[in-house]
Batch of 3 targets.
Target 1
Amino acid sequence: MNLVSELVITQERLNSISGKYHIPELKMVSENVQKLTGMLRDTAFSMSLIPIENILTRFQRLVRDLGGGLGKKINFSASGTDTELDKTMIDTLIDPLLHIVRNCVDHGLETPDERIKNGKSAEGNIFLSAGYSGANVVITIKDDGRGIDPEKIRRRAIEKKMISSDSKPSSTELYNLLFEPGFSTSDKITEVSGRGVGMDVVNRNITSVRGNAIIESEYGKGTTVTITLPLVLSIIDGLLVQIGDNQYVLPLSVTDKIYSVTNDMLNNKFIDLVTLEGRQVPFINLRKELEIKSYPPERVQLVVIKNSGSEAALSVDRVVGKIQAVLKPLGKLYNNNKLISAATIMGDGSISLVFDIDETIKLIK
């Protein structure tokens, strides 16, 4: 995989030279090398991708054994198991997923008597689903158990002095506390839970592969954990754009259309909405978000992106073209920067930053 990544960088360098000198024979060779490199890249990826169904037996065994030990009747089902992920990513994900399923069995689902008393079927349900969303893979683990009591989290957080007693955090903010190190809602320590080693480890493993986890719950109805992961770790097809003097990369898989508009059309808006082909689309002025001080051109490009059911138009100075981007991780100094997820080395040796589309779209929410 590393060799293919280096080959892609070299091929982009060849494209750059070919575009500079306009030699027909060189351009023909460059196009052939690009085609062969793409085929080699796809073959290398297919060798390292495995379907999620390969790890399902672990979950089924865990649910059966743990549910039997706790006296609970549980039905485990899954969909979208043909969704493929990089083998190294799946190796990283196994422990977090097992921990989430263990939480569903232990914390989430009630005993048969308790379920019947609450008007539910005696058998609890855990449902795992996986699928593609733009440039990401989304894995959801859902149960129909007792859900999470936000007030219990709040009391425990006050005990641990994580929040003040007079603060009024939202349910989402309280659920996010479950990702804090050493935080547990268990009242007693057992072999399954209460040891303080919990969702913080899950979150750390998921963020290590550039993913994120969200907890949603309805008290008395159930809990859903949604994990969003990048589709490919090392190489993506990207759209190269220019803002000011710098170039950036947008994942090509989430781009829909590109429009050319006047800069005045964006500056004279009271709200960040622009009309494109008769419909209103929220837009994000990336010059403003990146705090670029130079003057924008008279006409700018709006790149419409669609991801996870959301749509937005990103304002850039110029669309340069399509590239294959080899993703390189950012250093620790950039951990707090949400808009940029990685960097890539261009054919001329310069560095371009890659936008994190999930975080960028959150700017309009």
Target 2
Amino acid sequence: MSGTTLALLRDLLLALCLIGLWSVLGFYIVLTVAGFLYSREARRRGAPDPEEWPGVSILVPAYNEEIVMVGTIESLLHLDYPRDRMEVIVIDDSSTDRTRRVVEHMMATDRRLKLVAIPPGLGGRGKSHALNQGVKHARYELIAVYDADNAPEPHALRGLVAELMQDDRLAAAVGKVRTLNRTTNLLTRCISIEFISFQWAVQAGRWRLLGLSSLPGTNYVIRREVLERAGGWDVDAIADDAELTVRLGQEGYHVKFVPYAVTWEPEPQHWGVWLRQRLRWARGGTYVVRKFLPRLRRLRRRELVLEVLHLLTIYHVFFLLVLLSDLIFLAGLIAGIAVGPIHSPLLILWVLAFTIFVLQLAIGLAIEGENTPLNLLVATAMYFTYCQLWIYVCAKAHWLDVVRQERLSWEKTVRVPLAARPSGR
């Protein structure tokens, strides 16, 4: 095959990759702009308080959470919500550390705190199983979920409940998650920027344009009746939030993003912990795609089709596009003399796509008031560093799911102590 033919083939593949990347990035920049508009609307409008605050049962699944348990319980018990209308239920999922003792000690000082202890041999089956056990002991008809390392701002629960009470079509109201240790190192700063961008694009933007948001793993309130009608949490799903989102939509309900209901949580500070966490997320997302993709024609709402296709894009399509484009560029650098330089129009398209990627991150940072020179510099470098690790994560997930066909199992993220308690903004 001649050098001219090789160059033509390479440029054709690169053009196809760029078209795909442009399509994905273009969609995300539209969502980001919509998220920006929603941020202004939500801040201006808010949600009025209901005439009477309903009761809320807060579920906190906990497995070996001794290091963070005290701080999280204190934050939850100090939520600005009527004391006689809330309870905090910690579900000890057969912990082997002092989690249970910590909870029992704190129960002596506040009657709102309860403990559900799953016996050894019956626990350790993941977050979904723990939540299903905990909801059986819930007193109220509204169920809130917080991870065991969360520090919600005082008004977070009020904001979620107020939005939920305004609209009977809502199955759940979900808040925003911020990174508590975002300035610790380069990794936590990248995670913070990623979370900001995701929430203002995928959560706020989709709600503004499509009336669609996804359940996160934490900081949300859901109607118990709707949850039970949907069948509870899927114990086989390690991405329980994404899976439940689709089933709630099948019942005809919506999930609304509430940006002013904020919780803070520490994120992984070491790359190994981050990789294991993201591998769990990738495999969990793939599980949802495998479960619902064959049923795509039977999904009742077009928004649900977009939800499944969104997961398919993140964990499959975008992964392949970035991988191919990287390989083509590397091949061009290594064998540039043999096949010739990459055509200028393709380079221009690639640069523009990269610019849109950075612009999307910059808009999210601006909404949060964190568009500092350092954050913008990190955002610029993320495509070449942090985002490229997604290739490894998705490739390993495919290897485990498709090639080795390993069974999905829950793997807890190593916790970071809650060193500071936010008081709200």
Target 3
Amino acid sequence: MNQSHLLDVAPVDASEYAAIEDLCREVIATDQTTLVLQGEAIVFLEAAARGLGRPGGRALNLVSGPYGRIFGEWLSEAGSEVENLVVPFDRAVRPEEVEKALERSGPVDVVSLVHAEAATGVVNDVAAIAELARSRGALVVVDSVAAVGAEPLAIDAWQLDLVVLSAQKALAGPSGVSVATVSPRAWAALAGAPAPWRGSVLSLLDWRDRWAGAGRSVLPVIPSHLETRALGAAMGRVRAEGLDRVVARHRAAGRATRAALVPLGLEPWAREASEAASVATLVRAPAEGAPALVKAARAAAEDLAAPIGPAPGPLAERAVRVNHTGRRASLTTVWSALAALARGLGSLGYEADLAAALAGATDAWYAALG
């Protein structure tokens, strides 16, 4: 394919950039400062942690997966005293656990958590946890990269202070640009640090002062033109479909997959259905391990573009991930994953009732969509 025409595309200017930012704000339905940032989301999660962490600061960091653990490390490196509330990676952090931790630890200035972990397939109750944090005057910082578009996210109603988002998962967009929403309280905390980050890619204050608070007339960076426009295109698709509908598709895909596991002789990784994330479903692997099941499934189902693979990170040997994510949040995706898993199990010597699995998935899909 001749792609030379891509070199002729005019660069993104300040007005187009601002319009894409406004579209993001509209889609996620917030009145907070909304920034489109250049880089993968983990850069700005680190920016949030290093901007809010400080000597003398105290934070409660909730860990239900690998990304939560990393955020706590950054807060600590910035000088904060961090209590990590760690739970097994097959369940969520329960609000009652957060309440007890807050009572035990005394005043904290930050409560941080991951909304949904694509690496574990678990979702946390952000609304309830945020209410507890606010009742004690703490800022609420949320990594919603894997959750936005797959789970309800009410930034303003839940009074979340700093949320980092990306279109790369449920919104079926690019990974090279990110979005952050920042409340007035969070801006005040960032500016009130003993040594605020300045002149750095990790400085959210620079974005405020040179862009959001300066009329958005001159871009403070040279943007990635294609990635930025891809974000705008993804947000345009989501607006056309409706964010609620995107969330509903992901929920239906998650419930359909989970409903089909028993006939296949498998178990979900997230033990409680109410704590299972909708962005992807993790499945406990048989004795042979996740890589062996995935390899067998792919070998036995060459005609199926099965969206399965070993879970990323620490669960790679123990869990298989079904990626019903983004445009794959569909019943046909679930069917293809189940067929591949059934064939793979069969080749490993296990009995799997594919017909019952498909029927259960179909019933659960339509029940979820009402």
